Protein: Glutathione S-transferase
Amino acid sequence: MFAAQAFASLFSSPAKTSSPSLASDHPTGGQAAHHAKPLFFTTPHHLKLTYFPIRGLAEDIRLILEESGIAYESENISFHDWHEGGIKQQRAADNPFGQMPILYVNKGEFILSQSKAIIRFIARSTGLDGGDAYSAARCDQLAEGIADLRRQYATLAYDKEFAAKVGDFINKTLVNSFTTIERVYDQNKTRYLLSQDRVSYADIMLFELVDQILALGQDARSVVAKFDRIGEVYKSIAARPRIAAYLASSRRVVAINGASASVGAFKA
Ligand SMILES: N[C@@H](CCC(=O)N[C@@H](CS)C(=O)NCC(=O)O)C(=O)O
Structure:
């Protein structure tokens, strides 16, 4: 195929996974799904998400699975079992990156690590990326902006000089990043990134980031309150029936970060 044809086919073909067994039951030819109707996972697939018992890099994935209504098993491995109990080494054979989160599809028929790859795999398979290349690219763009701020938040959370640095994070980093994200929503005019009512995976990532930022305390809450569009996304996602049920359930993991963090720390 010539490059131009290959490029053009990007815009006319449904998104595909590398696993034929997952794509073979695609019922709609890749049209954008209303709500989060599963496109690929229409026959039973067993999904297991493996991570530490914290929100960290896995909570976006959990929330996206919850919103999709896809059943999944959560395997939460203790820090001790992973580091000292030999689990990290055991899993390395199937997990070249050697880190979590890890998604196991059909008991290991397909194994995926790298949190953003897992998020996009599920989003592509459920329509939460909008179902076409343009919509998916817009989701990816916002998701990367959100991930940039999330990385800075995580660096701060584990910084030994957290107390000295949190003020600058809230008043500079957070304000600058939220100004940009608010601008993205302002340009779109709809509540969610892609439409008024159809949530995307990037909106869900924003929800979780805001929730983690609120844990920084009153100063952070005051900043968040100044961003109307971001606040609207946060509140409306929290109220979505599947998400609300998850947040109220024991499946919602409380700790945001590992035990050494200064905010949202895991307590044994
Ligand atoms: N880029 C990777 C980073 C994964 C990562 O840093 N995982 C950490 C937990 S947040 C981990 O597995 N730490 C234990 C280890 O490295 O053995 C991703 O996004 O998934």
About this structure: The chain has two domains: 20-126, 133-241. The chain has twelve helices and four strands. Residues 56-57, 88, 99-101, 114-116 surround glutathione (CB under 6 Å).
